[in-house]
From TrEMBL:
InterPro entries documented for this protein: Acyl_CoA_acyltransferase, Bact_Acetyltransf, GNAT_dom
Cross-referenced PROSITE patterns: GNAT
Residues of the N-acetyltransferase domain: 34-185
GO molecular function (one): protein-N-terminal-alanine acetyltransferase activity
Protein name: Ribosomal-protein-alanine N-acetyltransferase
The keyword Transferase is assigned to this record: yes
EC number: 2.3.1.267
SUPFAM superfamilies: Acyl-CoA N-acyltransferases (Nat) (SSF55729)
Keywords: Acyltransferase, Transferase
Pfam families: Acetyltransf_1
CDD domains the record matches: NAT_SF
Length: 188
């Protein structure tokens, strides 16, 4: 299923910061009621709640989420249901010098999964990064997270060598992660 009806406010840097009228809520869950937009400072409490709902013990502490927002607000996108709830987000952190970026967070709430929203968030952020001159994007993913790995592979990400991208104890004892990488330079 695709997220075709998803409203988009990401066509230009100006629009990224422009307030907009929220669409009327739909009668049933789906994707048509969601707006994809850049995060705002006032989203932080709801972002924290969402991050905890999805990531539990590995959710970002509130203070870190705040500082990530301060540093990367332009590359912090949310799915807004227009009724005070965020249904997903993606966050990319980018270095100025070597034009590297890391996807630091991606999620869609459980009730909205498999509607193309994760792909939509990733496609938008990759487009923003490409237009900003980013040359490569990396991310970490839990080896058992097949859904995310399939999504990333379908977008062109590949495991970064050595060892097939597997970094043992990457986030601490027993917290292994794959590193995946996408080259943007010269890409579509
Ligand atoms: C990973 C995640 C963001 C995907 O969001 P989503 O909106 O459900 O994904 P989409 O509907 O856009 O699916 C995109 C592709 O991902 C893959 N995928 C997603 N969910 C899948 C599942 N449950 N099983 C198998 N493949 C899956 C498929 O390849 C799918 O493409 P297809 O629909 O053409 O088959 C979502 O599952 C999530 O938030 N998970 C918990 C948080 C998380 O793991 N984040 C990533 C951390 S690295």
């Amino acid at each position: 299923m695709t997220a075709e009806p998803l409203e988009r406010f990401l066509n230009s840097p100006e629009q990224l910061r422009t307030p907009f009228p929220l669409p009327a809520p739909p009668a049933s869950p789906g994707t048509g009621d969601l707006v994809l937009r850049t995060a705002r400072e006032t989203d932080l409490p709801e972002l924290r709640r969402l991050d905890q709902e999805v990531f539990h013990e590995v959710a970002y502490p509130g203070f870190l989420l705040r500082q990530l927002y301060d540093m990367y607000a332009g590359h912090f996108l949310v799915l807004d249901d227009g009724r005070g709830r965020l249904r997903g987000y993606v966050l990319a952190g980018t270095t100025a010098l070597d034009r590297d970026s890391w996807i630091l967070g991606l999620c869609v709430t459980r009730d909205r999964r498999r509607h193309g929203l994760g792909r939509e968030l990733m496609t938008e952020i990759l487009g923003l990064l490409r237009r900003a001159g980013t040359e490569r994007v990396r991310l970490t993913v839990e080896p058992a997270n097949h859904a995310a790995i399939l999504l990333y592979r379908s977008l062109g990400f590949r495991f970064e060598e050595p060892e097939g991208g597997l970094r043992r104890d990457y986030f601490g004892p027993g917290m292994h992660r794959h590193i995946m990488r996408l080259e943007l330079a010269g890409g579509a």
